[in-house]
Write a structure and sequence with these properties.
Elements (H helix, E strand, L loop, with lengths): L4 E4 L5 E5 L17 E2 L4 E4 L2 E5 L11 H5 L3 H8 L11 E2 L15 H12 L13 H11 L11 E4 L2 H12 L5 E6 L4 H8 L3 E8 L5 E2 L1 H6 L5 E7 L11 H13 L4 E4 L24 E6 L12 E6 L6 H11 L7 H13 L2 H22 L5 E4 L6 E6 L10 H12 L1 E2 L1 E2 L8 E5 L4 H18 L6
Parallel strand pairs: 2-5, 6-17, 8-9, 8-11, 11-12, 12-13
Antiparallel strand pairs: 1-2, 3-4, 4-5, 7-14, 9-10, 13-14, 15-16, 16-19, 18-19
Helix pairs in contact: 3-10, 4-10, 5-6, 5-9, 11-13
Length: 463
Protein backbone atom coordinates (compact mmCIF):
# COMPACT_ATOMS: atom_id res chain seq x y z
CA UNK A 1 0.00 0.00 0.00
CA UNK A 2 1.28 3.57 -0.69
CA UNK A 3 2.73 5.36 2.31
CA UNK A 4 0.46 8.25 3.48
CA UNK A 5 1.79 11.74 4.15
CA UNK A 6 0.25 13.16 7.37
CA UNK A 7 0.37 16.89 8.07
CA UNK A 8 -1.46 18.86 10.77
CA UNK A 9 -3.36 21.90 9.61
CA UNK A 10 -4.33 25.14 11.35
CA UNK A 11 -7.31 23.38 13.02
CA UNK A 12 -5.08 20.65 14.48
CA UNK A 13 -6.79 18.06 12.31
CA UNK A 14 -4.80 15.88 9.96
CA UNK A 15 -4.46 16.10 6.20
CA UNK A 16 -3.74 12.76 4.55
CA UNK A 17 -2.41 13.44 1.03
CA UNK A 18 -2.05 10.36 -1.09
CA UNK A 19 -2.40 9.52 -4.76
CA UNK A 20 -4.66 6.65 -5.86
CA UNK A 21 -5.69 5.88 -2.25
CA UNK A 22 -7.67 2.64 -1.76
CA UNK A 23 -9.43 2.75 1.61
CA UNK A 24 -10.00 -1.00 1.52
CA UNK A 25 -6.27 -1.47 2.02
CA UNK A 26 -6.30 0.45 5.32
CA UNK A 27 -6.91 -1.95 8.27
CA UNK A 28 -9.94 -0.98 10.41
CA UNK A 29 -11.18 1.74 8.13
CA UNK A 30 -14.72 0.32 8.42
CA UNK A 31 -14.81 1.31 12.10
CA UNK A 32 -14.06 4.94 11.34
CA UNK A 33 -16.82 7.51 11.98
CA UNK A 34 -19.14 8.24 9.10
CA UNK A 35 -17.45 10.13 6.35
CA UNK A 36 -18.31 13.70 5.48
CA UNK A 37 -17.57 14.13 1.78
CA UNK A 38 -16.42 17.73 1.19
CA UNK A 39 -15.31 17.72 -2.47
CA UNK A 40 -14.85 15.26 -5.31
CA UNK A 41 -11.34 14.58 -4.10
CA UNK A 42 -11.53 15.27 -0.33
CA UNK A 43 -13.23 13.21 2.36
CA UNK A 44 -13.19 14.15 6.10
CA UNK A 45 -13.23 11.47 8.78
CA UNK A 46 -13.67 13.01 12.26
CA UNK A 47 -10.83 15.51 12.11
CA UNK A 48 -8.77 13.73 9.47
CA UNK A 49 -8.93 15.07 5.88
CA UNK A 50 -8.13 12.43 3.28
CA UNK A 51 -7.19 13.98 -0.08
CA UNK A 52 -7.11 11.98 -3.28
CA UNK A 53 -5.25 13.61 -6.19
CA UNK A 54 -7.36 13.98 -9.30
CA UNK A 55 -6.07 12.19 -12.42
CA UNK A 56 -3.78 14.26 -14.69
CA UNK A 57 -6.03 15.04 -17.62
CA UNK A 58 -5.01 18.58 -18.66
CA UNK A 59 -2.71 18.50 -21.74
CA UNK A 60 0.61 20.34 -21.54
CA UNK A 61 0.51 23.46 -23.69
CA UNK A 62 3.04 24.09 -26.43
CA UNK A 63 5.15 27.23 -26.33
CA UNK A 64 4.26 30.45 -28.11
CA UNK A 65 7.37 30.20 -30.33
CA UNK A 66 6.38 26.73 -31.52
CA UNK A 67 2.87 27.99 -32.26
CA UNK A 68 4.37 30.69 -34.47
CA UNK A 69 6.59 28.26 -36.37
CA UNK A 70 5.15 27.40 -39.76
CA UNK A 71 6.71 26.01 -42.94
CA UNK A 72 4.66 27.03 -46.00
CA UNK A 73 6.00 24.16 -48.12
CA UNK A 74 5.12 21.51 -45.57
CA UNK A 75 1.70 23.05 -44.93
CA UNK A 76 0.84 23.11 -48.64
CA UNK A 77 2.34 19.75 -49.59
CA UNK A 78 0.86 17.94 -46.58
CA UNK A 79 -2.61 19.12 -47.59
CA UNK A 80 -2.28 18.33 -51.29
CA UNK A 81 -4.17 15.38 -52.71
CA UNK A 82 -1.29 13.23 -53.91
CA UNK A 83 -2.60 10.13 -55.68
CA UNK A 84 -0.32 8.75 -58.38
CA UNK A 85 -1.56 7.27 -61.61
CA UNK A 86 -0.99 3.53 -61.00
CA UNK A 87 -0.26 3.00 -64.69
CA UNK A 88 2.70 5.40 -64.70
CA UNK A 89 5.90 5.29 -62.65
CA UNK A 90 6.53 8.21 -60.35
CA UNK A 91 8.94 10.92 -61.45
CA UNK A 92 9.67 13.46 -58.75
CA UNK A 93 10.95 16.86 -59.79
CA UNK A 94 9.98 18.38 -56.45
CA UNK A 95 12.91 18.25 -54.03
CA UNK A 96 16.24 20.02 -54.42
CA UNK A 97 18.13 17.14 -52.80
CA UNK A 98 20.91 16.22 -55.25
CA UNK A 99 21.27 12.72 -53.75
CA UNK A 100 17.78 11.40 -54.55
CA UNK A 101 18.51 9.64 -57.86
CA UNK A 102 22.16 8.76 -57.29
CA UNK A 103 23.30 10.32 -60.56
CA UNK A 104 25.34 13.03 -58.81
CA UNK A 105 28.12 11.43 -56.81
CA UNK A 106 30.44 13.14 -54.37
CA UNK A 107 34.15 13.53 -55.01
CA UNK A 108 36.58 10.80 -53.95
CA UNK A 109 38.52 13.54 -52.17
CA UNK A 110 35.58 14.03 -49.81
CA UNK A 111 35.22 10.33 -49.11
CA UNK A 112 38.93 9.94 -48.37
CA UNK A 113 38.98 13.04 -46.17
CA UNK A 114 36.17 11.62 -44.07
CA UNK A 115 37.87 8.23 -43.75
CA UNK A 116 41.12 9.88 -42.72
CA UNK A 117 39.34 12.01 -40.11
CA UNK A 118 37.70 8.91 -38.66
CA UNK A 119 40.75 6.67 -38.66
CA UNK A 120 42.99 9.11 -36.80
CA UNK A 121 40.64 8.90 -33.80
CA UNK A 122 41.62 12.50 -33.04
CA UNK A 123 38.32 14.16 -33.92
CA UNK A 124 35.73 12.49 -31.72
CA UNK A 125 35.37 15.22 -29.12
CA UNK A 126 33.94 18.69 -28.84
CA UNK A 127 35.39 21.61 -30.72
CA UNK A 128 34.98 25.30 -29.96
CA UNK A 129 31.33 26.27 -30.32
CA UNK A 130 32.11 28.35 -33.41
CA UNK A 131 34.15 25.52 -34.95
CA UNK A 132 37.73 24.30 -34.91
CA UNK A 133 40.44 26.84 -35.84
CA UNK A 134 41.58 24.68 -38.76
CA UNK A 135 38.11 24.33 -40.26
CA UNK A 136 37.32 28.03 -39.82
CA UNK A 137 40.64 28.95 -41.46
CA UNK A 138 39.79 26.70 -44.41
CA UNK A 139 36.45 28.44 -44.87
CA UNK A 140 38.11 31.85 -44.64
CA UNK A 141 40.58 30.90 -47.35
CA UNK A 142 37.79 29.47 -49.52
CA UNK A 143 35.82 32.73 -49.31
CA UNK A 144 38.67 35.21 -49.57
CA UNK A 145 38.81 36.90 -52.95
CA UNK A 146 40.59 40.05 -54.10
CA UNK A 147 38.89 42.91 -52.35
CA UNK A 148 37.20 40.61 -49.82
CA UNK A 149 39.68 38.82 -47.57
CA UNK A 150 38.48 37.26 -44.33
CA UNK A 151 40.16 35.47 -41.42
CA UNK A 152 39.22 32.46 -39.32
CA UNK A 153 37.94 34.79 -36.59
CA UNK A 154 35.28 35.99 -39.03
CA UNK A 155 33.84 32.50 -39.58
CA UNK A 156 31.21 30.63 -37.54
CA UNK A 157 30.50 27.01 -38.44
CA UNK A 158 26.88 25.83 -38.30
CA UNK A 159 24.82 22.67 -38.69
CA UNK A 160 23.43 23.34 -42.14
CA UNK A 161 22.75 26.58 -43.96
CA UNK A 162 19.31 26.91 -42.37
CA UNK A 163 21.00 27.25 -38.97
CA UNK A 164 23.38 29.83 -40.41
CA UNK A 165 20.40 31.84 -41.64
CA UNK A 166 18.62 31.41 -38.32
CA UNK A 167 21.62 32.72 -36.38
CA UNK A 168 22.04 35.72 -38.68
CA UNK A 169 18.39 36.70 -38.41
CA UNK A 170 18.37 36.21 -34.64
CA UNK A 171 21.57 38.21 -34.18
CA UNK A 172 20.25 41.15 -36.20
CA UNK A 173 16.56 41.43 -35.32
CA UNK A 174 14.42 41.46 -32.20
CA UNK A 175 10.76 40.63 -31.73
CA UNK A 176 8.70 43.07 -33.80
CA UNK A 177 11.52 43.97 -36.18
CA UNK A 178 11.36 43.01 -39.85
CA UNK A 179 13.64 41.59 -42.53
CA UNK A 180 13.17 41.96 -46.30
CA UNK A 181 13.03 38.68 -48.24
CA UNK A 182 12.47 37.82 -51.94
CA UNK A 183 9.15 36.84 -53.49
CA UNK A 184 9.22 34.22 -54.86
CA UNK A 185 11.75 32.92 -52.38
CA UNK A 186 12.82 30.02 -50.24
CA UNK A 187 10.21 29.41 -47.53
CA UNK A 188 12.72 28.79 -44.72
CA UNK A 189 13.30 32.55 -44.36
CA UNK A 190 9.70 33.00 -43.26
CA UNK A 191 9.73 29.92 -41.05
CA UNK A 192 12.84 31.01 -39.16
CA UNK A 193 11.64 34.55 -38.66
CA UNK A 194 8.25 33.56 -37.28
CA UNK A 195 9.75 31.45 -34.50
CA UNK A 196 11.45 34.56 -33.11
CA UNK A 197 8.44 36.82 -33.78
CA UNK A 198 10.39 38.68 -36.47
CA UNK A 199 8.26 39.95 -39.33
CA UNK A 200 9.15 39.52 -42.98
CA UNK A 201 8.34 41.83 -45.87
CA UNK A 202 8.39 40.35 -49.37
CA UNK A 203 10.14 42.31 -52.08
CA UNK A 204 9.13 41.50 -55.64
CA UNK A 205 11.24 39.78 -58.25
CA UNK A 206 10.57 40.44 -61.93
CA UNK A 207 10.00 37.31 -64.05
CA UNK A 208 10.27 39.35 -67.26
CA UNK A 209 13.83 40.32 -66.24
CA UNK A 210 15.09 36.85 -65.30
CA UNK A 211 13.84 37.36 -61.75
CA UNK A 212 15.89 40.45 -60.94
CA UNK A 213 14.87 42.46 -57.88
CA UNK A 214 12.26 45.18 -58.27
CA UNK A 215 14.49 47.85 -56.72
CA UNK A 216 11.76 50.45 -56.26
CA UNK A 217 9.54 47.98 -54.47
CA UNK A 218 12.44 46.81 -52.32
CA UNK A 219 13.20 50.33 -51.18
CA UNK A 220 9.55 51.14 -50.52
CA UNK A 221 9.40 48.40 -47.88
CA UNK A 222 12.12 49.82 -45.63
CA UNK A 223 10.91 51.31 -42.36
CA UNK A 224 12.35 52.15 -38.94
CA UNK A 225 12.22 48.51 -37.83
CA UNK A 226 13.83 46.95 -40.91
CA UNK A 227 17.06 45.24 -39.86
CA UNK A 228 18.42 43.44 -42.95
CA UNK A 229 17.91 42.41 -46.57
CA UNK A 230 18.24 38.76 -47.60
CA UNK A 231 19.64 38.12 -51.07
CA UNK A 232 19.50 34.57 -52.46
CA UNK A 233 21.91 34.29 -55.38
CA UNK A 234 21.86 31.93 -57.26
CA UNK A 235 18.19 31.61 -56.48
CA UNK A 236 15.87 28.95 -55.19
CA UNK A 237 13.23 28.68 -56.70
CA UNK A 238 13.99 30.89 -59.70
CA UNK A 239 17.43 29.76 -60.87
CA UNK A 240 18.46 33.37 -61.42
CA UNK A 241 22.10 34.50 -61.23
CA UNK A 242 22.56 38.22 -60.66
CA UNK A 243 25.05 40.34 -62.55
CA UNK A 244 27.60 42.41 -60.66
CA UNK A 245 25.78 45.58 -61.72
CA UNK A 246 22.46 44.37 -60.33
CA UNK A 247 24.00 43.31 -57.01
CA UNK A 248 25.58 46.75 -56.74
CA UNK A 249 22.15 48.31 -57.23
CA UNK A 250 20.81 46.25 -54.31
CA UNK A 251 23.83 47.22 -52.22
CA UNK A 252 23.15 50.88 -52.96
CA UNK A 253 19.67 50.51 -51.44
CA UNK A 254 21.17 48.79 -48.42
CA UNK A 255 23.77 51.53 -47.95
CA UNK A 256 21.24 54.34 -48.21
CA UNK A 257 19.22 52.81 -45.40
CA UNK A 258 22.14 51.46 -43.33
CA UNK A 259 21.00 47.86 -43.69
CA UNK A 260 23.33 44.85 -43.59
CA UNK A 261 22.92 42.07 -46.15
CA UNK A 262 22.34 38.40 -45.38
CA UNK A 263 23.67 36.68 -48.52
CA UNK A 264 22.33 33.14 -48.99
CA UNK A 265 24.91 31.79 -51.43
CA UNK A 266 24.46 28.06 -50.91
CA UNK A 267 24.33 27.58 -54.72
CA UNK A 268 27.56 29.48 -55.31
CA UNK A 269 29.22 28.69 -58.64
CA UNK A 270 26.37 26.43 -59.81
CA UNK A 271 25.97 28.67 -62.84
CA UNK A 272 25.54 27.92 -66.52
CA UNK A 273 27.80 28.84 -69.42
CA UNK A 274 27.92 32.54 -70.08
CA UNK A 275 27.06 33.37 -66.46
CA UNK A 276 29.34 34.31 -63.58
CA UNK A 277 28.72 34.09 -59.86
CA UNK A 278 29.60 37.25 -57.94
CA UNK A 279 29.80 36.99 -54.13
CA UNK A 280 27.88 39.92 -52.67
CA UNK A 281 30.69 40.68 -50.22
CA UNK A 282 33.16 41.15 -53.08
CA UNK A 283 31.21 44.09 -54.50
CA UNK A 284 31.10 46.53 -51.59
CA UNK A 285 33.60 47.89 -49.10
CA UNK A 286 30.95 49.80 -47.16
CA UNK A 287 27.93 47.52 -46.68
CA UNK A 288 28.48 44.71 -44.15
CA UNK A 289 27.53 41.27 -45.43
CA UNK A 290 26.83 38.04 -43.55
CA UNK A 291 27.46 35.30 -46.09
CA UNK A 292 25.74 31.94 -45.52
CA UNK A 293 27.15 28.98 -47.41
CA UNK A 294 28.05 25.33 -46.96
CA UNK A 295 28.61 21.90 -48.49
CA UNK A 296 24.93 21.17 -49.16
CA UNK A 297 24.50 21.94 -52.87
CA UNK A 298 27.81 22.55 -54.61
CA UNK A 299 29.45 19.61 -52.82
CA UNK A 300 26.25 17.47 -53.01
CA UNK A 301 26.03 16.44 -49.34
CA UNK A 302 22.94 18.02 -47.74
CA UNK A 303 22.84 15.30 -45.10
CA UNK A 304 26.28 16.20 -43.76
CA UNK A 305 24.81 19.43 -42.33
CA UNK A 306 28.01 21.45 -42.65
CA UNK A 307 27.66 25.16 -43.32
CA UNK A 308 28.98 28.48 -42.08
CA UNK A 309 28.59 32.21 -41.67
CA UNK A 310 31.30 34.52 -42.99
CA UNK A 311 31.29 37.98 -41.41
CA UNK A 312 32.34 40.49 -44.07
CA UNK A 313 32.69 43.74 -42.15
CA UNK A 314 35.54 45.99 -43.23
CA UNK A 315 34.43 48.96 -41.14
CA UNK A 316 33.60 47.22 -37.85
CA UNK A 317 29.92 48.02 -38.22
CA UNK A 318 28.95 44.53 -37.04
CA UNK A 319 31.25 44.29 -34.01
CA UNK A 320 28.27 43.88 -31.67
CA UNK A 321 26.54 41.46 -34.05
CA UNK A 322 29.75 39.43 -34.25
CA UNK A 323 29.64 38.95 -30.47
CA UNK A 324 25.98 38.02 -30.77
CA UNK A 325 26.77 35.31 -33.33
CA UNK A 326 29.46 33.87 -31.08
CA UNK A 327 26.97 33.76 -28.20
CA UNK A 328 24.36 32.09 -30.38
CA UNK A 329 26.87 29.45 -31.47
CA UNK A 330 27.04 28.34 -27.84
CA UNK A 331 23.46 27.10 -28.05
CA UNK A 332 24.51 24.29 -30.42
CA UNK A 333 28.21 23.69 -29.70
CA UNK A 334 29.41 23.42 -33.31
CA UNK A 335 28.60 20.94 -36.10
CA UNK A 336 29.94 17.41 -36.53
CA UNK A 337 33.61 17.22 -35.53
CA UNK A 338 34.56 14.63 -38.16
CA UNK A 339 33.27 16.79 -41.00
CA UNK A 340 35.07 19.77 -39.49
CA UNK A 341 38.30 17.77 -39.61
CA UNK A 342 37.70 16.85 -43.25
CA UNK A 343 36.75 20.38 -44.28
CA UNK A 344 40.24 21.75 -45.10
CA UNK A 345 40.85 18.94 -47.61
CA UNK A 346 37.35 19.21 -49.05
CA UNK A 347 37.52 22.95 -49.66
CA UNK A 348 41.04 22.93 -51.06
CA UNK A 349 41.38 19.66 -52.97
CA UNK A 350 38.13 18.70 -54.70
CA UNK A 351 39.02 19.06 -58.39
CA UNK A 352 37.23 21.65 -60.50
CA UNK A 353 36.25 18.89 -62.94
CA UNK A 354 33.88 17.52 -60.29
CA UNK A 355 31.94 20.79 -60.19
CA UNK A 356 31.98 21.09 -63.99
CA UNK A 357 30.35 17.66 -64.25
CA UNK A 358 27.55 18.68 -61.88
CA UNK A 359 26.96 21.93 -63.73
CA UNK A 360 26.88 20.09 -67.06
CA UNK A 361 24.18 17.67 -65.87
CA UNK A 362 22.00 20.44 -64.43
CA UNK A 363 22.50 22.77 -67.41
CA UNK A 364 21.69 20.01 -69.91
CA UNK A 365 18.45 19.33 -68.07
CA UNK A 366 17.65 23.06 -67.97
CA UNK A 367 17.99 23.38 -71.74
CA UNK A 368 16.00 20.18 -72.25
CA UNK A 369 13.12 21.32 -70.07
CA UNK A 370 13.09 24.79 -71.56
CA UNK A 371 13.26 23.44 -75.12
CA UNK A 372 10.51 20.89 -74.60
CA UNK A 373 8.10 23.13 -72.66
CA UNK A 374 8.59 26.55 -74.28
CA UNK A 375 6.56 25.55 -77.32
CA UNK A 376 3.66 24.16 -75.29
CA UNK A 377 0.63 26.43 -75.36
CA UNK A 378 -0.61 27.05 -71.83
CA UNK A 379 2.71 27.18 -69.99
CA UNK A 380 5.66 29.55 -70.07
CA UNK A 381 9.03 28.37 -68.71
CA UNK A 382 11.59 30.98 -67.70
CA UNK A 383 15.10 29.85 -68.58
CA UNK A 384 17.27 29.74 -65.47
CA UNK A 385 20.91 30.79 -65.27
CA UNK A 386 22.02 28.49 -62.47
CA UNK A 387 21.10 26.56 -59.30
CA UNK A 388 18.85 23.48 -59.57
CA UNK A 389 15.50 25.02 -60.52
CA UNK A 390 13.21 26.43 -63.18
CA UNK A 391 9.93 28.28 -62.71
CA UNK A 392 7.18 27.58 -65.26
CA UNK A 393 4.23 29.93 -65.66
CA UNK A 394 0.70 28.54 -66.05
CA UNK A 395 -2.04 30.11 -68.20
CA UNK A 396 -4.78 29.32 -65.71
CA UNK A 397 -7.31 31.54 -67.47
CA UNK A 398 -7.38 29.07 -70.34
CA UNK A 399 -7.55 25.93 -68.22
CA UNK A 400 -11.19 26.02 -67.11
CA UNK A 401 -11.02 22.87 -64.97
CA UNK A 402 -7.96 24.04 -63.00
CA UNK A 403 -8.48 26.73 -60.37
CA UNK A 404 -4.91 27.47 -59.31
CA UNK A 405 -1.32 26.23 -59.31
CA UNK A 406 -1.93 23.84 -56.40
CA UNK A 407 -4.76 22.15 -58.32
CA UNK A 408 -2.54 22.06 -61.41
CA UNK A 409 0.21 20.14 -59.59
CA UNK A 410 -2.30 17.84 -57.87
CA UNK A 411 -3.87 16.89 -61.20
CA UNK A 412 -0.43 16.50 -62.82
CA UNK A 413 0.39 13.95 -60.13
CA UNK A 414 -2.93 12.15 -60.44
CA UNK A 415 -2.85 11.91 -64.23
CA UNK A 416 0.86 11.73 -65.07
CA UNK A 417 2.63 10.74 -61.81
CA UNK A 418 4.95 13.74 -62.17
CA UNK A 419 5.56 15.63 -58.94
CA UNK A 420 6.43 19.34 -58.96
CA UNK A 421 5.90 22.04 -56.36
CA UNK A 422 3.30 24.76 -56.86
CA UNK A 423 4.64 28.29 -56.61
CA UNK A 424 2.34 28.88 -53.65
CA UNK A 425 5.14 27.26 -51.66
CA UNK A 426 7.25 30.31 -52.49
CA UNK A 427 4.57 32.95 -51.84
CA UNK A 428 3.94 33.43 -55.56
CA UNK A 429 0.91 32.59 -57.72
CA UNK A 430 0.58 31.08 -61.17
CA UNK A 431 3.73 28.94 -61.52
CA UNK A 432 5.18 25.55 -60.72
CA UNK A 433 8.82 24.72 -59.96
CA UNK A 434 10.81 22.04 -61.76
CA UNK A 435 13.96 20.54 -60.22
CA UNK A 436 16.76 20.00 -62.73
CA UNK A 437 19.05 17.41 -61.12
CA UNK A 438 17.24 14.18 -62.09
CA UNK A 439 18.76 11.77 -64.62
CA UNK A 440 18.31 13.11 -68.15
CA UNK A 441 16.07 10.31 -69.42
CA UNK A 442 13.65 10.90 -66.52
CA UNK A 443 13.70 14.63 -67.18
CA UNK A 444 12.75 13.99 -70.83
CA UNK A 445 9.99 11.58 -69.80
CA UNK A 446 8.62 14.07 -67.27
CA UNK A 447 8.51 16.81 -69.91
CA UNK A 448 6.64 14.56 -72.32
CA UNK A 449 4.06 13.89 -69.63
CA UNK A 450 3.76 17.58 -68.73
CA UNK A 451 3.16 18.42 -72.40
CA UNK A 452 0.47 15.76 -72.61
CA UNK A 453 -1.16 17.00 -69.42
CA UNK A 454 -1.24 20.63 -70.53
CA UNK A 455 -2.60 19.77 -73.96
CA UNK A 456 -5.40 17.80 -72.28
CA UNK A 457 -6.48 20.79 -70.20
CA UNK A 458 -5.59 23.88 -72.22
CA UNK A 459 -8.69 25.33 -73.87
CA UNK A 460 -8.25 28.85 -75.21
CA UNK A 461 -11.57 28.74 -77.10
CA UNK A 462 -13.77 28.27 -74.06
CA UNK A 463 -16.93 30.33 -74.02
Amino acid sequence: MPRPNLNTNANNSYNLNIENLNLDEIPGHNSWPAANKTTDTDTRYSGMLITRKAPWTTPVKRSASSLRTFNPIRSIVDNMKIELNPEKTKISLALGDPTIYGNLDISAVMKNAMVDALETAEHNGYTASSGSPEARAAVAEYHSVPGSQVTAEEVVLTSGCSQALDMCMTALADSGDNILIPKPGFSIYQTLSMTNNISVKFYKLKPEASWEVDLDHLESLVDARTKAIIINNPSNPCGSVYSADHIKQILAVAERHRLPIIADEIYDNIVFRGQKFHPVASLSTRVPVLTCNGLTKKFLVPGWRMAWIVINDRNDLLCDVREGLMCLSQRHLAPNSLIQAALPAILSSVPEQHFIKTRHIVERNAYTVYGMLSNVEGIDPIMPQGAFYMMVGIDLENMPDIDNEVKFTEMLIAEQSVICLPSTCFEYPGYFRVVLNAPHHLTVEACDRIREFVSDHYNPNQE
